[in-house]
Predict the 3D structure of the following.
Amino acid sequence: GSNDQILQNTASGYQVKPKEFNAKATDAINHGWRVQDSVTRGYVDVLPGFTGFTIPTQTTAPVSGYANHTVFGRLYKSAEDTGWTYGPNVQVPYNNGEAIDGKDLVFWYEGYLPHSAAEGSGLWHSTGLRLVVNGGTTQTFTNPTAISIPDNSSGIPYPSTIAVAGLSGAISKVVVKLNGLKHTYPDDLDILLVGPGGQKVLLMSDAGGGSDLVSANLIFDSAATASLPDTSQISSGTTYRPTNYKSPDPFSAPAPVAPYGTSLDVFNGTSPNGSWQLFVVDDAGEDFGSMERGWELIITTNN
């Protein structure tokens, strides 16, 4: 009855829609829309129908765009809960610009099925949705090899990689662990994660000031409530959101160029299989460090 949120998949990850809205399904990256409980963090992803759909002995053609809005967020009101009485090809009413973040809300998603007689009998259209509850299969992948972090230089190896294979479905969540991180001035550290599809997230940059890190274990999760501290001591064992206090960040090739994402949600909806890369850089003089026990990926996929 409350605490609901609608989120849209963007270049910066899943972002909350604060007010009632009309949108196209394609306004979200990979058609990624989500309904979430802001307290429990439980959510349902609303995704396009299954890929690889075929009709035997017939031709299929994708719809490249939508003429109408197909996604709608509304504050729940009993007087507006009239069921579908609006007729075909009609937009959902009651967009009054009311706040919906953390409220009791309604999420509408219209199936859009254009067809004309001129297309003939040989062309088929299909439409549908996939509703995926967060959960699915979770697996951990580890590269335990230490990463040396020389003064004012790139880490060794650069990048450190983890090969992921054999997972089915799309990513619904990624968590990253850095194990045994040591540095005499953590504010010098820039750490970038790049997925197999080229999505890129800056895990940490210019955080922690000059307070030494001594064999710290850091966990990064976009659902975390805490950011890394800017100038005070970074706590080992704490779960943080990806945090960046300064741009631009000096990653040399083969690291991809900026801009970099700020949320691990940018990986959601993509394939987990392939090479994941961790780029570590010390961007100033006089201090150095290491990642003594490497790093881990905890990947949840929807089957």
